[in-house]
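Lay summary

Proteins are chains of building blocks that fold into shapes. Our project writes down both the chain and a compact code for its shape. Here are two examples, one after the other.
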Amino acid sequence: MPRISLGDIYLIPTPPNGLHYHVAIAQSDNDSYLFVNYSTVQDSTPDEDLDYTLSPSRTPVKYLNRESFFVFGSAKEFSGNQLDLLNCKRAGVFPPSTVEQIQYAGLASKSLKSKYKRLIKSYLGLL
């Protein structure tokens, strides 16, 4: 079972769109984390929240080679066991400063579910 850490990037199946990179942005319990996937801006649709984008020049992450946005509306919790069952492997890690920016962007997002906003606020000590 993989041990998840804040900022870890996993390639996770995202039906019907195949595999997408997801980053762990907050711990929800002992073994579960809230993950949000990211996609390139050029692949976005008009209804997607592009309020927070990240370019490769702003973070030294191997798996971010084009301007990308975070899909807060599809955020999900995963445990190490779930990632194991999905045969997911850790692909990299975002630095803590970037994770914090993603967390605050999630709090400002219109598409992130309220329960996940509470989770992030609790994780950040804002509740």
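And here is the second example, written the same way.
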Amino acid sequence: MDLAVWLFASKAHVDLKRVLTRFGLTVHDTTTRRALKSLTESSLAKLRTAVAEDLAQQDNSGYALILDNVQQYCPTHEHCIGKAPQQGHQRGLTSHRQLPYNTECIHRQEFLQQELTASHAALLSTAGPSP
């Protein structure tokens, strides 16, 4: 099944998939799509319950969500002369669990001041002597 998912994700040519399916090394695209759909649905259900449990607790842990634009050119299969590929726009969401942390441990201003001082010192050392 892992080879089938890899072939699906890499958009391998249909002839390669047919040959590998004939040899019994992979499964059909429909089976792969159904497996990925099943994994997505079960993972989404688990994520929903975990986020609901985390919202009920009042500690500093939780989930961070990263939303990203995914763009790719999709070929158009219409019988029109001069039809150019269109750019498809989709969104991808990644979530990851954050570990509990103490908010008093983070001193942002001190950190930024240290970074500014260090970068300033690095610039002075690479600039050489002034005239």
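What can we say about the second shape? DSSP finds four helices and two strands in the chain.
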